[in-house]
Amino acid sequence: MAQYARTKGSIALITLTNPPVNALSAAVRKGITEAVARAFKDTRVKAVVLCGENGKFCGGADIREFAKAMSGPPLVPMIHAIEAGEKPVVAAIEEMALGGGLELALGCHYRVAHAKARLGLPEVTLGLLPAAGGTQRLPRLTGIPAALDLITTGRHISAQEALKLGIVDRVTEGNAVEAAVELALSVVGRPLAPRRLSNHATPLPADLDGVFEEVLVQVKRRARGAMAPVACAKAVRAAAELPYSRGLECERELMNTLFTSGQARALQYCFFAQRAAGKWSLPNGARWDNSRPRAVHTAGVIGLGTMGRGIAVCLVKAGISVVAVETEEKQLDSGRRAVRGMLERDAKRRGVTAPLHMITFTLSMQQLRDVDLVIEAVFEDMALKKSVFAELSRVCRPNALLCTNTSGLDVDELASVTDRPPLVVGMHFFAPAHVMKLLEVICGPRSSPETVATAMTLGKRLGKVSVAVGNCPGFVGNRMLKLYLDQAHFLLEEGASPEQVDQALEEFGFALGIFKVADLSGLDIGWRVRKAAGLIGPDVDPKFPSRHRQGRRYCPLPDLLCEQGRLGQKSGRGWYLYDSAGGKEARPDPAISSFLQEYRLRYGISARRITEQEVVERCVFVLANEGFRILEDGMAAAPEDIDMVYVFGYGWPRHRGGPMFHAAQVGLATVLQRLEFYHRQNPDIPHLQPSTLLRRLVGARSPPMQQWKQHIRSINSQL
Ligand SMILES: CCCCCCC/C=C/C(=O)SCCNC(=O)CCNC(=O)[C@H](O)C(C)(C)COP(=O)(O)OP(=O)(O)OC[C@H]1O[C@@H](n2cnc3c(N)ncnc32)[C@H](O)[C@@H]1OP(=O)(O)O
User: Fold this and answer.
1) Which residue has its alpha carbon closest to ligand 1 atom 20?
2) Catalytic amino acids?
3) Is residue 126 lining ligand 1, measured as CB closer than 6 Å?
């Protein structure tokens, strides 16, 4: 809807009314169309101001409408009518002008923004392009390079940056609607033709081809296989080469291809799934909207290894005072240098002063006595963590929350050594913790609603996507990762090379193949976990290590690599070869190829040709299969949560929605049939055996994802 009012005698004030973000639903488009026509007709009205209710201009087209048949007045002619009008129209941009909201503002003759407003064309993040004339008007206003940047990345910019780029005419610290009314009064009677962006010629850079080539390289690197950024670049190219009306046709054609694509569906699914993940609930009825989180002003971080450093940086950047604890002077010193360096670099990038005063470094746990919450990030060893938690019980205030950054250990076992099990929760960050968006919040069986609410809210404050998960080995992410890695290792035994597996996964869209990721993380991490799980030990024959352990197929290849000192990037050699220890450029290593050949010979395995299809299906379907088991076990509340863990924590290509969404898109019956096929070929790999839930869903004719949980016999939520 849109409200119409007259102010200052001659200004029509049109207010978009569709909380929470005044999205351009059919009703809003109808309201604007009618209100603008009314203002243009009313002879008392000399100029028009467009604004949004509740201090928010507009969050763009209504994304929920994309899944339905479109109705109501379309955006393009509505915006054209505004631009072509004979009375000046000024957009008053408060808080946000995003997507269709900014396109609407670009159709206005003037734009005023509040200093705190954010502007952008994020359609690309939804698998679309700014198809309400945005790809044609913005380049005419800012020039090609800036428009390409904004449209292909979808990034939000500040009002100040928008002013520099010429996207807004004025920025105000005061009331943007009043400033817009003032501007509207001052421009009455001025010629409007120069203010109509569709009339402008697009300013062209000297090396047009070079600019586009460079952008295409960048977009392909950022999101391999994603269609929308490429289509966005093509549409902007049309603005460079064609008159406005033909450019608009090109924009529409490109949008038509994107609009019904699987990628757009996946990206829009991710938008809503990300927001749904924050809406947690526990079996006792506690929920995100009835549990009050505690305020967190001060926090302790124990352990200044890679994880602890990143966590400390996140906390400080969120305005939380931190006490960072190490056990030895040397580690404390190197941790202090690293954390300060990260804070200084970040501050320099943002042109602010580094908040170094907000963190103190100490060797004494006693310094944690007054903090609101502690995050333990010591070495992944249950005995060590237990001793830390017992000590924290003694040192911290009785109501301080105790959190562990364990990546897979039993949170309840840790809680049991404390004097406050309800105040213990897992906060599993992903490396590097100040960069990665995912936070798994592990709800132990005794974690209180207030504790869960505090951890989830703190995650959001740190800029993370917090997902509540149950307390099982590996939680959601690493429980699934183990099986994904196993498949990759088995494929090496059967005839594939690390680079072949990685290439197939990267073609699928993963930012990095699994073997490159393993090298980056360090192969010794998994080695240690396998030792702790009793899979490696003195009874393993060092010359001929068994390929069956604990009743199932086991691949000793990564252990053999570690025994050779090939630990990944840090040692300059892993599944790949690097220039030096710490090198980043992965090169195929002929030594690995010979190593694999010898291994196959030793075990009598005849290498077979493995297709890209097999690599992707085995790696990706095994993830979804375990996801179904996780749902049955009650360790995740919904398939959307599992997908968000993979998208934000494991480099899963967002335009494929997540492993569960992907399984639904491929077709559950196909996934079932392919898993059965691979399991028949590999009966000693139990995780290739289709899960009960998958079978049941296929039996029920593959219902939509929202109905999957209804097919779990007895839901026993472990959250
Ligand atoms: C052939 C058809 C041609 C059509 C032409 C199409 C051209 C234009 C396309 C577009 O405009 S696509 C949409 C572009 N806009 C965006 O991508 C913005 C999306 N929203 C956001 O980034 C954020 O929500 C926000 C606006 C920055 C606000 O963030 P905040 O953290 O304050 O709140 P949220 O929790 O994210 O959102 C609150 C609530 O609002 C819902 N919502 C937000 N934006 C939209 C939207 N554009 N459409 C529908 N719903 C939206 C969001 O889902 C939340 O709802 P609940 O989860 O609470 O129910």
Assistant:
1) 59
2) 103, 123
3) yes
The closest alpha carbon to 558, from 489, 464, 647, belongs to 489
Domains of the chain: 2-259 (3.90.226.10), 298-472 (3.40.50.720), 496-602 (1.10.1040.10), 612-634+637-711 (1.10.1040.10)
Query: Whose CA is closest to atom 8 on ligand 1?
Result: 100
**Cβ neighbours of residue 108 closer than 8 Å, sequence gap 6 or more:** 50, 82, 83, 89, 90, 91
Q: DSSP for 306-338?
A: HHHHHHHHHHHHTT-EEEEE-SSHHHHHHHHHH
pTM of the model: 0.95
Kindly state the average pLDDT of the residues 459-472.
97
340-392 pLDDT, tens digit each: 999 999 999 999 999 999 999 999 999 999 999 999 999 989 999 999 999 99
60 lines ligand 1 (CB under 6 A): yes
Q: What are phi and psi of 704, to 5 degrees?
A: -65, 160
Average pLDDT score over residue span 305-324? 97
Q: What is the ipTM of this complex?
A: 0.98
* C-beta separation of 223 from 216 below 8 A: no
The DSSP code sequence of 429-453 is E-SSTTT--EEEEEE-TT--HHHHH
Q: How far is 480 from 666, CA to CA, in rounded Å?
A: 19
Q: How many residues appear in the chain?
A: 719
Q: Rounded to an integer, what distance in angstroms lies between the CA atom of residue 686 and that of residue 87?
A: 71
Q: How many CA atoms lie within 13 A of 241 on its CB side?
A: 12
Using the atom order of ligand 1, give the atom closest to the CA of residue 100: 11
Nearest 5 degrees, angle CA 700-CA 701-CA 702?
A: 95
For residue 274, the number of C-alpha atoms closer than 13 Å in the C-beta half-sphere is 19
Please indicate whether residue 556, judged by its CB atom, sits closer than 6 Å to ligand 1.
no
| Centre of ligand 1 from the C-alpha of residue 113, in Å | 19
